[in-house]
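Schema walk-through. Below, the input block comes first and the output block second. Nothing else is stored per chain. Lengths vary across the set, and this one has 462 residues.
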Amino acid sequence: MPDIVSPIDDQVAYTYSELGEAEALAKLDRADEVQRQWQEVPLSRRLEVCRAMLQRYGELEEHYAEQITRMMGKPLAHARGEYRGPMRERTLALCDMAEAALADHVLPQKLGFDRFIRREPVGTVLDIAAWNYPLIIPINVVVPAVLAGNAVVVKHAHQTALVADQLEQAFTAAGAPEGLVQALPVDHVTVAELIAKRRFGFVAFTGSVRGGHEVYRTVAHECFVGVGLELGGKDPALVLPDCDFDFTVDNLVDGAFFNAGQSCCGIERIYVHEQLYDRFVDAYVAKTRQYVVGSPLEATTTLGPVVSATAAEGIRAHIEQALAMGARALCGTADFAMGDLGPCYVAPHVLVDVDHRMEVMSEETFGPVVGIMKVADEDEAVALANDSRYGLTASVWTQDADRGLRLMRRLQAGTVYMNRCDYLDPGLAWTGVKDSGHGASLSPLGFLSVTRPKSYHLRTQT
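--- output ---
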């Protein structure tokens, strides 16, 4: 039985049982059986189940939130917030758009013929979900898949494996047939073997770039099915002289350090126009020092541990390399009353005198660290922002909408923001370019991955 070691105290918080291949196949058999029935259920009933799932999850919200906090370390208020905020928002938005997204595409009248294209379910969907936002990441896949008539099995990250059980319980309590949404606690070897057996109609993966390449290779080698990959980011912010200064500072501090910086769309590098640079850095450092680092179970804590001691070591390695290459830390461990919290706690770090030779500016750090660079003009800012193998999000901070839109067009990212960051709007496609991913979730486009087009061509006159 695998142990889930909590980053709060480096002690075992939970254990769970992994399935062998035979047990996993039995779950998939059940999913396939239920899916064949579920696809005949009217959309109105599918909508009822997804909306009721929210209510049923909410009845155990406090228990579930504490599990999430103990498993991966985010402050308890933030764990509650996953359900109260984006989980509800995304589920209800996807329900609202489902009818139009799944409607038949009817071609113009042609004498003697009826023609239309219908979106039909792909069957059983495999969702391989990440730990950093363990509740809302699977929602991006599970809800549209269920609404489209599919069954779903959720192979959650080991660190947050119990969240898959939470979702299964909530759907079952909402009246979904048993087996429609199931936890699939298996190891990496077993999940690869299941993919190779061609048991899935679609595979969604959220995680590292390396993991995405492994999933893509496995599926491409054995199957002709769709793959959705939501991978890493090294998300830049471009701060222009005409920005709303206080608003920009506040949002970019939160964008860098929320969830201890463990967000694929979190701010990791900031390019500030030289006219504003010194003032911006001073205000940014002062705001960062207001964080309270500590146990996420304490109400006063605003920044908890990172997910594991191994993750913390990697983050510290990025910081140490940057410092050895000439960077300066204007905010770091000495600025926070941390005591002896344990190996998983990393203080917020603000680094200056950084450049793109340093991993902290080129590779995903995935922790509470941000690098700030001075730029002479817009062209330099755009060139540096695009100088990355990642392309998930990028943001421009200006009060001139025309100027902002002009720069946004030049940025190589799946989502570009003006005066916003680190947020997913469920009405917009969530997608990435370069090594940040493949495919799209959320928005009406998110229903395309979990359905396949089927053309209907009827001769009505002979």
